[in-house]
Amino acid sequence: MSPSSTTFTVNQNLFYQRSPPLRVEVFQASELNKDIFERLNQHALATGQRHVGLAAAYYGDNKCILSSLALAASTEVVVINLPRSVTKARKRLIGDFLSSAAFTKAAFHLDTLVAALHYDFRIPLAKGLDLLSVAPLAARESLDAMIKTMGGESEVNKRQVDALFVHRQPEAPLLGKDLALQAWAAWNTAVSSIMASKFYEIPVIDTPSLRPEHLDALSKLVRDAQRLDALKPTAVQNEIADNHTYEGGKFQVTCTRFKNRIRSDAQARTVSLTPAIQTTYNKQRIEVRGHDDSLVASGRVDHVDGRQAKLNIRLPLATGGLKVVTVGKEAPTSAERRRATIVLHALQGTSSILSKPFFKALWLPTATDKPQEPGICIPIASTYPRPLNPSQRSAVAGILSSAPVTVIQGPPGTGKTTVIAAAVWCIDACAAAHQRAVYCIAQSNVAVKNMAEKLASVGFYDFKLVVSKGATILSAPSWFSLVDRHLHADFHYDWHEHLYYKIDDNVLRADQLSQDILDASLQLAGSRFILCTLSMLANPHFGIVTRILPPHTIVVDEASQIEIGDFLPMIELYSTTLRKMVFVGDDKQLAPYGQGQIDSLRSVFEMKHLRQDAIFLDTQSVCFHPSRAKFDIQCKPSMPTQLGGFISQNVYEGKLRSVHKMRDRCWWFVDVPQGEESMKGSSWINMGEVKAVVDVARKLKDRGKSFRVITPYDAQRGMLERNEDDFIVLSLVRTRGVGFMNETRRVNVMLTRCKKGLIVCTNRGFVQGQARNTLIGLLADRADSWAPLKLS
After folding, report:
1. pTM, rounded to two decimals
2. C-alpha R_g of the chain
3. Cα–Cα distance for residue pair 743/738, rounded to 1 Å
4. What is d(CA 332, CA 325) in angstroms, rounded to the nearest whole number?
């Protein structure tokens, strides 16, 4: 034993079988030597089982770096505390042990551990056994899966397993004792005669046999998913109307906000009424709280139908002013589970994803696959019924080309959706492409709806827009705040049906799709152009569509907002038929969810080998329809020329041109010297700015101006569902901390929402002082920015 190491004994309480006390020895990485691993090696071989159990702990920040590693065999456990930087000599000692083929290394969630060993320290692991691979893929995180993997309820203490593995408090650190028990439980499970036949069938993980670039890509996919999961909130207050009812143990409520509504997939989530005794198979529960935020009761979601939710909760008294709170992290979505499964199988060598052309195209810069078929050669000008500027023509040509991947960057108002519509029109006009199924997708429902409306506006109706009810989908991101990444699929039903009235005849609901090939074909009405969200592609009800119309070309709008790993399930599912991927977006606007906290997250636009060949839409203009002799109301108008010029110079390196009939001054700053920021919950408010905004809004209304009010903070939000209008009134809220203004991409989105004018309500001293180097500060510093507001 090293002089500075710590030694103690632990009695295991997980398995009903009797076991001698475990001797646990804790070392710092700097104390490691060959003797430590040799002793552990002898214990691993002494029983004849030739297994070592592993468990890991990670630093509590959102970087999720490996902080401790536990290795267990029979009655001995070694815990190694790892600094963020480990010397080469110590890495070699750990690597030599973990890469030995003399014994099997077993762990629960070995994929996460293997990725961390490589990603953080470049330490290899051979002959690794992922124990939870015997569980159903959709339930790897559940208590039920853990119990069955460990031998069943007759073998283990369910309550102790739950406390150690499943329902640990997220803020509680994994101490040496618990980490040692987890590692020993992995060893004891791996050598169990009850599970031996099932474990024998699991392919081992052997990282030395993987190509370095493959292991790099897989490890980053695991780490990104791990860090995103760490960002999930542990409690969400569900906004409900006051007209709730309570009868017969059922609490009926009406949700008033889509973003934080009670989710339909929570129907099976239950908790006991005694919070200290968790007996559930998941981590979430529904709580009812009073005015003072005190707990009134907790229970489960019984049923959700659109805005209406029925909760199975025993309330002591039916009173007004109650709050409903979802407590606990949201469980992984089906898309997240599928992504994790793909990576696990790739590490185990049972998936061919690493050889798929589009995996190589997106993740491996040096990989090149030649086009498998010619592009579509159609004179664009003679087919699309509306004029396109030169950069739009280049973008459409890129979509129609034989290149397997095309990336298009479109700043605000440059016609990204127009380019997609023109490409669809050209593909439809090409006789040689009549067998090609084209899927136009986006992360948000709103973006998909906008593509559909653009197609309809040019007289193209040969498409189907598939929406969902009851399955998990990605919702439209908030313009100015990071929202829950995974919202659920009632976006259309009972919430936003009114948004679809222009294209109602083209809308199909996934749960109403027939699962009979002939009937579903009739529902699709011969269309080969399908519009849907990215997550819809993995919806079980949607499979009938892709069987009838195997995807040939996938066009992704809002691609700059999608973390690149989210494309993994799509690439795996459709690799045999997919020939073309098009990514349309703007990396100067909203980033993938979480990038503000996780700067290593990437969209396709952050992949250098893809970004360098992106086609740039360089012209902001108002679409003009010659046959109507007026500005086309279906085209998204650009911002006024002066504001467009400022954005071009400060965001787009001067490459963006603005064509607009308005060339006069178009922005105003309103000084709010009495305004002061203050916290409200986890957000911010500024009552002085509230009054100033109301005053400005009153003036705009009196002059018959169309306007919207926007703000970067939920607590101060005054904006409606649609974020663009002639005039935008912006409330900055902050007066002491720069906050969101440090994020140029978010500010760029806010400043580019107006058609005629932007009015910013803020504290002049703050903007010209602490915030002077932000995009807002630079705009405020322009001539006449603070001149009195005059509206004709």
Report:
1. 0.85
2. 29
3. 10
4. 19
Between β-strands 754-762 and 323-327, what pairing exists: parallel, antiparallel or unpaired?
unpaired
The CA distance from 327 to 629, in Å, is 57
The dihedral region occupied by 679, where left means phi > 0, alpha psi between -120 and 50, and beta the remainder, is beta
Give pLDDT, residue 206: 97
> CA 43 from chain center: how many Å?
44
Residue found by looking up tokens 């993938």 in the block: 592
Output the CA torsion 234→314→310→445 (10° steps).
0
Backbone angles phi, psi at 555, to 5 degrees: -105, 120
The confidence score (pLDDT) of residue 281 equals: 36
| Rounded Cα distance, 585 and 594, in Å | 17
Instruction: Give the pLDDT confidence of 12-46 residue by residue, as tens digits.
Output: 999 998 889 999 999 999 999 999 998 888 888 87
DSSP secondary structure of 431-481? GGGTT-EEEEEESSHHHHHHHHHHHHHTT----EEEE-SSSEEPPPPPSSS
**What one-letter code names the amino acid at 370?**
K
Q: How confident is the model at residue 562 (pLDDT cuts 50, 70, 90)?
A: very high
**Tell me, what amino acid is at 430?**
C
Q: What is the pLDDT of residues 432-467, one digit of tens each?
A: 677 789 999 999 888 998 899 899 888 898 999 998
Nearest-5° Cα angle at 781, 780 to 784? 80
CB atoms within 10 A of CB 786: 17
Of 716, 282, 749, 266, the C-alpha closest to 480 is 749
Rounded to 10 degrees, the C-alpha dihedral 548/568/452/625 comes to: -120
pLDDT digits 0-9 by tens, 319-360: 556 777 777 777 787 788 889 999 999 999 999 999 999 999
List, in order of start, the domains of the chain with CATH numbers.
Answer: 6-230 (3.30.420.10), 235-327 (no CATH), 356-631 (3.40.50.300), 662-780 (3.40.50.300)
The CA-based diameter of the chain, rounded to the nearest angstrom, is: 90
What contacts 24+ positions apart, CB below 8 Å, involve 772-779?
A: 774/738, 774/741, 774/742, 774/744, 774/747, 775/650, 775/651, 775/741, 775/744, 775/747, 775/748, 775/751, 776/732, 776/741, 776/747, 776/751, 777/741, 778/646, 778/650, 779/646, 779/667, 779/751
Q: What is the dihedral of CA 373, 378, 381, 386, to 10 degrees?
A: -70
Cβ atoms of 76 and 22 within 8 Å: the answer is: yes
pLDDT attached to residue 540? 77
Length of the chain: 792
Burial grade of 642 (CB within 10 A; 0-12, 13-18, 19 or more): middle
Report residue 145 CA to chain centroid gap.
25
CB atoms within 10 A of CB 572: 21
Give the strand pairing for 323-327 and 235-238.
antiparallel
DSSP 208: G
3-state secondary structure of 482: coil
Mean pLDDT of the chain: 82
Helix ranges (DSSP H) in 618-702: 641-651, 687-702
Count of alpha carbons within 13 Å of 538, Cβ hemisphere only? 21
Q: Which residue has the tokens 């030599």?
A: 96
Structure tokens at 459: 């007289």
Under 8 Å between Cβ of 44 and 51: yes
Please give the structure tokens belonging to residue 558. 């809002």
Amino acid 499: pLDDT: 58
- The DSSP symbol for 166 reads I
Tokens of 325: 């709170």
pLDDT at residue number 379: 63
Residue at token pair 């992995």: 186
